[in-house]
Amino acid sequence: MTFRVLKIDHLGIAVPDASAATTAFEALGFHVESSHDVATERVKTVFLPVGESHLELLEPTAPSSTIAKFLEKRSGLHHVCVLVDDIEAAMADMRAKGVQLLDETPRIGAGGCRVAFIHPRSAAGVLLELKEDEA
């Protein structure tokens, strides 16, 4: 392998209202570390630290967003994100092994990091996000 999975970066949780969800999680002892509007994905994100990882609350900002469509069918856990040391190497290695990628190239995610998604068919039914931190 030409890359390493470093840790679980975050668990993405789809919510219809990030403010209400934030209030609920704050009552459970969590606190907001940061929030971002990701215009390209039509989503607002709120990050709550949990040790070295995070919970990411995902609120749709448009009815046509992926998160809005997800919430039409279900709520709760949307994806698992793992931090990798080299996203392009990870994608090339996975592609060579027949893994179905949802992204051809990395895109910019919350906070300016590069991300790419793996189809749930290739990850035991889980939507998996690969993340490489900003350099």
What's the order of the H and E elements?
Answer: EHEEEHEHEEE
The helix content is 10-25%
The radius of gyration over CA amounts to: 15 Å
- Describe the strand arrangement of the main beta sheet, using strand numbers: 2-3-4-1-5-8-7-6
CATH class: Alpha Beta
CATH superfamily: 2,3-Dihydroxybiphenyl 1,2-Dioxygenase, domain 1
What overall geometry do the principal axes of the alpha carbons give?
A: globular
**CATH architect. name:** Roll
The major β-sheet equals: 8 strands, mixed
**Can you tell me the number of structural domains?**
1
**What structural class do you assign from the helix and strand content?**
alpha+beta
Report low-confidence residues grouped into runs of 5 or more.
none
Count of DSSP strands: 8
| Overall average pLDDT | 95
Distance between the termini: 21 Å
The DSSP helix count reads 3
CATH fold-level label: 2,3-Dihydroxybiphenyl 1,2-Dioxygenase, domain 1
Tell me the quaternary state: single chain
List the helices and strands and how they pair.
Layout (H helix, E strand, L loop, with lengths): L4 E10 L3 H10 L6 E5 L4 E8 L2 E8 L5 H8 L2 E9 L2 H10 L10 E2 L5 E5 L9 E5 L3
Parallel strand pairs: 1-4, 5-8
Antiparallel strand pairs: 1-5, 2-3, 3-4, 6-7, 7-8
